[in-house]
Amino acid sequence: MERELDDYQADIRFGEWLRCQRVRAGLSIEKAAEASSLTIDRLKTLEMGLSERGITHPESVRICTVYQISLNEMLEQAAKE
């Protein structure tokens, strides 16, 4: 149970980081979703850290392109515990 809580907290932290990157890029959630070919609901779920299936590689690449961040930076954030 403790490990599940740690994973949940890591997902929440990653979502917060992702949202900060979007805001830093000057994008509304609607513009970011459209530019990255994601639904608004999908992007909201990722930003809240509530995605049961996590973030896919293609989604990561598209988001990184739109937010102008490196994939390595995103992967480092996702791996933080």
Describe it for me?
This protein has one domain (2-79): lambda repressor-like DNA-binding domains (434 Repressor (Amino-terminal Domain)). It is 73% helix and 0% strand. It has helices at residues 2-24, 29-35, 40-48, 57-67, 71-79. With 81 residues, the protein is an all-alpha fold. Helix 1 (2-24) crosses helix 3 and helix 2 (29-35) crosses helix 3.
What is the residue-averaged pLDDT? 91
CATH topology: 434 Repressor (Amino-terminal Domain)
Overall morphology? globular
CATH class: Mainly Alpha
What is the CATH superfamily classification? lambda repressor-like DNA-binding domains
CA distance, first residue to last residue: 16 Å
Return the domain count: 1
Radius of gyration: 12 Å
- Count of helical regions: 5
Task: Give the beta-strand count.
Answer: 0
Structural category: mainly alpha
- Assign the CATH architecture: Orthogonal Bundle
Secondary structure: helix percent: over 70%
Spell the H/E element sequence: HHHHH
Major beta-sheet overview: none
What is the percentage of strand-forming residues?
A: under 5%
Low-confidence segments, given as residue ranges, are none
Q: Which short descriptors sum up this protein?
A:
81 residues, 0% strand, single chain, mainly alpha, 434 Repressor (Amino-terminal Domain)
